[in-house]
Amino acid sequence: YTATLSIGDGAVTSNAAVLNGTAAGFGPALTITPDPSNAMDIAGGSSPGTTVTFTVTNTGTLSSAALNAAALAGTNPGNFEIVTDNCSTTTLAISGTCTVDVRPIA
């Protein structure tokens, strides 16, 4: 980014100083824990399996925008279901958290 710095009193104006800089490392950064979760097995023919709560944390340096709805993807998304999405439309402050509950289904 760039700007110009000058100062004056209305009658006299100083020379202008050109300012240049960059900004990096500023922004939200979302982490999901636990990762990976090995507690998603279905045993003994009972379905659905045990619900696992995933915590989303903003570890970044700025608040997030409103979060989208949680979604399942990958090889077998049909073998899981989102039980509760407490993150959808939430804006996370720095160090803020929300949770998504997921369980396996057969």
Describe it for me?
The chain is mostly beta strands. The protein is built from no helices and six strands. It has strands at residues 2-5, 17-20, 30-33, 52-58, 80-85, 97-104. The strands form two sheets. It has a four-stranded antiparallel beta sheet, with no helix packed on it. Strands 1-2 form a two-stranded antiparallel ribbon. The N and C termini lie far apart (53 Å). The model has no long low-confidence stretch (mean pLDDT 85).
Concise description?
This protein is mostly beta strands. Helix content is about 0%, strand content about 30%.
- Based on DSSP secondary structure assignment, what is the total number of beta strands? 6
Order of helices and strands: EEEEEE
Report the helical percentage.
Answer: under 10%
Unreliable stretches (pLDDT < 50, length at least 5) are: none
Quickly count the helices: 0
Mean pLDDT: 85
The biggest sheet amounts to:
4 strands, antiparallel
The radius of gyration over CA amounts to: 24 Å
Strand order of the largest sheet: 3-4-6-5
Form type: rod-shaped
Query: Could you tell me how far the N terminus lies from the C terminus, measured between alpha carbons in angstroms?
Result: 53 Å
| Main structural class | mainly beta
Strand content is 25-35%
Offer a few descriptive terms.
106 residues; 4-stranded antiparallel sheet; two-stranded antiparallel ribbon
What's the structural blueprint in terms of helices and strands?
Blueprint: E1 2-5, E2 17-20, E3 30-33, E4 52-58, E5 80-85, E6 97-104
Antiparallel strand pairs: 1-2, 3-4, 4-6, 5-6
